[in-house]
Design a protein that fits this description.
- By secondary structure, this protein is of the alpha+beta class.
- It folds into 3 domains: 39 residues, no CATH class; 258 residues, Beta-galactosidase, Chain A, domain 5 (Distorted Sandwich), CATH 2.70.98; 228 residues, no CATH class.
- Helices cover 42% and strands 26% of the residues.
- It contains 14 helices and 20 strands.
- Strands 5, 6, 7, 8, 9, 10, 11, 12, 13, 14, 15, 16, 17 and 18 form a 14-stranded antiparallel beta sheet that branches.
- Helix 8 runs antiparallel to helix 14 and helix 10 packs antiparallel against helix 11.
- The termini are far apart.
- 30% of the residues are buried.
Length: 601
């Protein structure tokens, strides 16, 4: 080896030695790299490391990262929010890999009151996730990042990995022309992470409802959580105030986050247990209410678990909800008792039949009113005929009152009942037919404010039959900032009908009855001013037809003939047969007389 080679080798050695010395990592860098390698090893092995030692200030970030990565599902705590879209003819669903949940749901054929797209679920205003404890830490899948396993035209599979053999897998599928989004959850190996004593797993679902209707006050009053238990009973939380309820004795089959005209409904093949619901009013502008439901699902710690859910995102339209076959239609308030029966078995079928002709809803309401008034005509005529009998008997009743005097009310009633018996008249004959019509009148009070079909539909000057018409607006006075023109027309027509009814029945002479008849329509004006114009339109038509019916019947009734018939009844013993009401009244008066005599003794 010559001198040049020796010099070259020496120089190479010096260069390597110098590079090693100059590029040697500091003690701090060595510790950071060791912490990172330990964290990655702990994640792979599923172990948790407790870091209790004090870190230098410049290694705090590294320490936080290390603790985060070394925790259960540590790698899933970081990621980017990626969106996946599923859509059909009715809805457009955007899923996010953060939480593997639904992020937005747009109803394609609907819009908000201001014309903007209508979202039932929107952004960060909702949450959905399983909650459980593993390795001493609480896990909420709503906050973890899923990875995409596979996609199809109508579905996607997302996976939350603990390791290769332990994971949660969400399989979403959306069928054509449907409001239903199906979710199948596979919990593989997760049972090995949970305490053997734990028999259930928690599921949390919550959402903040945003304004969709022009009258947010009414929207808040018609929005709440509904649920159906495994005994078939549908119940709900308060619509008008904050409320909370825990269902412990029965299991729950579905939960509905109902908003006036739209709902998100979660159902499950595996019933929910120990359901805990809460509703909280939101006073911020544009917000309606916040819903939260926490439920438990049976969890088998001996094998893998599977859950089958279904999300319904759609309108509160009676025929659509009923077609789902799960009693979803029960979330629509149709009234109570006989009122609900009238709406369910008469009003809804009749309205759907008329709706099939694709007419303006103003015309549909007109025809609906005509049909129902026509069906009620026999009862109406009977009521007016009874009122006519009382009218022609008024002179004789006045004679009895003058003869007996007003200081002996018991004897006065007996003499009046004697006259009623002789002529064969039931003094309540005019009231009973009217009472029978009340369920039909009140049924529409619940039907129209909850009728989805009227939403956004215009008629005449009314731009939206599902809310009030407000041609006159002003600064708020006692919470009112408008006057409904249709409500004014309804009130004026009702006052006219009351005046005419008092005139033909003789009630105008009774000042007390007269004033009550006029006060009630005025009270209803202030109550109905903010109600849907479709409801006021129906009541307006009803008042018009009632007035016309009274005029027609009044012209057809001959008071002289009625009086002659009653006088003839006095001579006919069969006509004098007492009604059950008359018998009870006479018996009651006899008892009162006997009681008074005993007091005098």
């Amino acid at each position: 080896m010559d001198r040049n080679n020796i010099i070259g080798l020496v120089l190479i050695f010096v260069i390597f030695a110098g590079s090693f010395y100059l590029m040697k990592p500091t003690d701090q860098e060595i510790k950071q790299e060791q912490a990172l390698q330990d964290s990655l090893r702990n994640v792979r092995e599923g172990t948790v490391v407790s870091n209790a030692t004090t870190k230098p200030v410049d290694t705090v970030t590294a320490a936080i990262d290390s603790a985060d990565l070394s925790s259960p599902f540590g790698l899933a705590k970081r990621g980017e929010d990626n969106l996946i879209t599923l859509e059909n003819e009715l809805i457009k669903v955007q899923l996010t890999n953060k939480g593997g949940k639904v992020k937005t749901v747009e109803l394609k054929n609907e819009s908000n009151f201001d014309g903007s797209p209508l979202y039932l679920v929107e952004g960060d205003n909702n949450g959905f996730g399983f909650m459980f404890n593993t390795s001493g830490q609480n896990i909420n899948t709503n906050d973890l990042y899923f990875s995409t396993v596979s996609t199809t035209e109508n579905g996607i599979t997302l996976r939350l990995n603990y390791n290769a053999d332990q994971y949660l897998e969400y399989n979403y599928s959306l069928q054509p022309d449907s409001y239903n989004l199906k979710l199948n959850v596979q919990a593989v190996g997760i049972q090995n992470l949970i305490d053997l004593k734990q028999k259930t797993i928690l599921l949390n679902w919550e959402s903040t409802l945003l304004q969709k209707e022009p009258n947010i006050k009414s929207e808040r009053e018609k929005s709440t959580i509904f649920y159906r238990d495994n005994e078939g009973e549908v119940d709900h939380l308060s619509e008008t105030s904050d409320d909370q309820e825990k269902i412990e004795k029965t299991k729950v089959e579905w939960i509905a986050f109902k908003q006036h005209f739209f709902s998100s409904i979660l159902s499950s093949k595996q019933p929910f247990e120990n359901a805990d619901f809460s509703v909280a009013l939101q006073t911020a502008e544009g917000k309606v209410k916040h819903y939260k439901s926490t439920v438990e699902l049976a969890f088998n710690t001996q094998s893998n678990n599977q859950y089958d859910f279904n999300f319904f995102y759609g309108p509160n339209q009676y025929k659509i909800l009923k077609a789902e076959g799960k009693d979803y239609q029960e979330i629509i308030n149709m009234g109570w008792g006989p009122i609900r029966w009238v709406n369910q078995f008469i009003t809804v079928p009749l309205f759907n039949f008329l709706d099939g002709f694709h007419m303006s809803y103003g015309i549909v309401i007109l025809i609906l009113t005509l049909l129902l008034k026509g069906a009620m005509f026999p009862l109406t005529r009977k009521s007016y005929l009874s009122m006519a009998k009382m009218r022609v008997l008024k002179p004789q009743l006045d004679e009895i009152k003058e003869k007996v005097g007003s200081d002996n009310p018991m004897l006065l009633q007996q003499e009046q009942m004697k006259l009623y018996k002789q002529v064969g008249v039931n003094p309540l004959g005019g009231c009973l037919p009217m009472l029978l019509q009340m369920p039909f009148t009140l049924a529409f009070f619940f039907f129209f404010p909850n009728l989805f079909e009227l939403r956004g539909e215009s008629f005449l000057w009314m731009k939206d039959l599902s809310t009030y018409d407000a041609p006159i607006t002003f600064a708020p006075i006692l919470g009112v900032n408008h006057i409904s023109l249709m409500c004014i027309l309804m009130t004026l027509t009702t006052l006219l009908t009351t005046w005419y009814n008092n005139a033909i029945s003789g009630a105008a002479a009774n000042n007390q009855m007269k004033y009550i008849g006029y006060i009630m329509p005025l009270m209803f004006f202030f109550m109905l001013n903010s109600f849907p114009s479709g409801l006021n339109y129906y009541y307006f038509l009803g008042a018009v037809f009632t007035f016309l019916t009274q005029v027609i019947i009044r012209q057809a009734i001959d008071d002289d003939k009625i009086l002659a018939k009653l006088e003839e009844n006095k001579k006919n013993p069969k006509a004098q047969k007492k009604s059950s009401f008359g018998s009870r009244m006479e018996e009651l008066m006899r008892q009162q007389q006997a009681a008074q005599k005993n007091k005098k003794k």
